[in-house]
Amino acid sequence: MHRLSLKEDTMKESNMPKADFLMSILLIVFGITVLVTSINMPRFEEMDANPYSVPGVVPGFLGVIIGFMGLVLLIRSLIRKGYKLGITGQTVKNWAKEDSTRRLLLTLGLTLLYALVFIGFLPYAVGTVLFIFAFIVVFEYKNGIPLREQKRMIWKAVLTSVISGISIWVVFRYLFLVNLP
Amino acid sequence: MLEGLQLFGQSLLGFMQFKILVYVLLATELGIIVGMLPGLTATMGVALLTTLTFKMPASEAILVLICMYVGAIYGGSRSAILLNIPGTPANAATAVDGYPLAKQGRAGRAIGIATTGSFIGTFIGMIILALFTPLIGRFALEFKSFEFFWLAIFGIVISGNLTAPKDPLKGWIAGFLGLFIAMIGMESSFAFIRFARPGSEMSGGIALLPAMVGVFGFAEIITVMKQSAYEVVNTRIERVIPKFVEIWRNKWTIVRSGVVGTFIGAIPGVGEDIAAWVSYDMAKRSSKTPEKFGKGSIEGLIAAEAGNNACVAGAMIPVLTLAIPGSAPAAVLLAAMFIHGVRPGPLIMIEFPSFVYEVVVMVLLASAAMLILGLSMVKWLVKVLAVPREKLMPIIFVLCVVGAFAIQSRTFDIGVMVFFGVVGYFLREMDYPMAPLVLGIILGDILDKNLRRSLILSDGHLAPFFNQPIGLVLFFVTLLVILSKMKWFQNIMLGLKNLITAPFRKNKEV
Q1: Residues of B in contact with A19 (CB under 8 A)
Q2: What is the pTM of this model?
Q3: Torsion of CA B447, B266, B33, B437, to 10 degrees
Q4: Is A178 on the interface with B (CB under 8 A)?
Q5: B185 by DSSP, 3-state: which?
Q6: Cβ neighbours of residue A146 under 8 Å, at least 6 residues apart?
Q7: Greater confidence, B230 or B176?
Q8: Is the CB of residue B402 less than 8 Å away from at least one CB of chain A?
Q9: What pLDDT digit, counting tens, does each position of A11-47 carry?
Q10: Which residues have C-beta within 8 Å of that of residue A5, sequence separation ≥ 6?
Q11: Cα(B468)–Cα(B474) distance, rounded to whole angstroms?
Q12: Residues of chain A contacting B453 with CB distance shorter than 8 Å
């Protein structure tokens, strides 16, 4: 059903109770916080408000349900021994060495840099071209081969980023009259 | 009925303009490309086009969006067949039999059959949409606060159940988190700002579109980039137009898948992927040659594609009659309707009766365009799949940022998109489905208003929640859906079944 390979799938299965354990604690804390915040919301008694119509009723109800489901998840993960997190220096090292982790972190880093820093600090078109260029180069760069021999890839990246960045800018801004950041 | 046909004819004539037909072809072709590209889903496509069609007249904009939706759900079958990677989650079942066919050198034939199956599926869905929308609309007029409260809960529970079949608890958690997200911002009775500082950007609430672009666009980019690269296969594509016999032989499979797909589409928040799997599964069970499934069965391929495309029309039924989306792309479509000033809901058959038939015509035009485009220009379009993801994903992310920003021009919405993308990615990794979350964001407002209204009407008593016929039915169905996933309940039911059937079995033995 999924496109994950078998190995990845079984690794995921064995880690699931641990993830559930952590998530359940988060959900319980979240549920309680929501409930307490909802109880402390104003009741508008001076306006003669119906006590069942005050703002806190529905979020309070949701807080209780989320907390309860967190509790069920907690019990289930405890039965499956999810509290044995088994995080050691070695497991973290192995995780960090994996190729997929490297790609995950690179993707997150580049996209967050663009969305949260480039947009707003750089002119839109400049930031966009720069981001597309950096993304292509970072992922297509081959370790171990001198940069001189990868010139073709760099030039192609320049071309792709300039054409696509500029055309997105022009098409949205002038053809579809969309506001751009 | 006759009045419906008349409105249908009028709408069809209204759309017969050169400009509009060009829009239909362009939007459907764009949809096919979006669907083909792994990492770009139908939801993303519809969300992006919503920003592009922002300034168009309402009916043209919605037509373009429906074409994109139909095109994308169909287009995903191309990459499923050629790469074994479903272009959208809806085409996962297509890959099971489509890819083996391609490996046997019958890619063209598989594409042709998938196209025809999709077309007939959409067509069946369209007929059910036209027949049932007025009926359900009339029925929905009976809904009051109690019923809407139960409908919101029912929607979350059933969506959570079906989108997370392995672990429904996670589906329900995702749904209730979505309901909570809808609580953020100003509420309607006292203008009190919940869970945000007054005056902050959060106090305006979390907008649906940036959140959706995050969980379905950005999260998908992260998922695609994390996986190792896919190989582009070079398959020769021969004859695409299918033989009539092949389709005719599977006529009952197509009709069954079309009907099943449409009804699954009509269930709130349960989308094309589930529709395809259920149709596929049913086809396998009633097939004379179930052993061929998974090895390149034409029957399986046609069931999956007819099922997912029929779901598109089905998902429109609750959008129009209850303002509740039947699937994730339909949620964007619903948001787009509100942006363009069309207010779907129980009053639609009274306020805008012609709009319902316009939507039916739009689905018809989109499916016709899909058939024409799907059977032509196949060799040329397949080249799109050769674009490497390293070049494609940054461009898609740029589009995500534009899509989140454009409607309200707030930088805050980019932050919302990024937040939902990252959190959504991790939730998806932990098997939390995203469709109930999005459904929750939409249903949150309905739940808030109707639970409070109901409590005022009942003066805090719970009895009225359970003594109205429609509400009671919804409650029992919800309860049954939850209980059906519990082991002890399954055991009791099995025991009961044995108890009841035991005397008959004894008689047989005698």
Answers
A1: 430
A2: 0.91
A3: 30
A4: yes
A5: strand
A6: none
A7: B176
A8: yes
A9: 566 789 999 999 999 999 999 999 999 999 998 888 8
A10: none
A11: 10
A12: 53
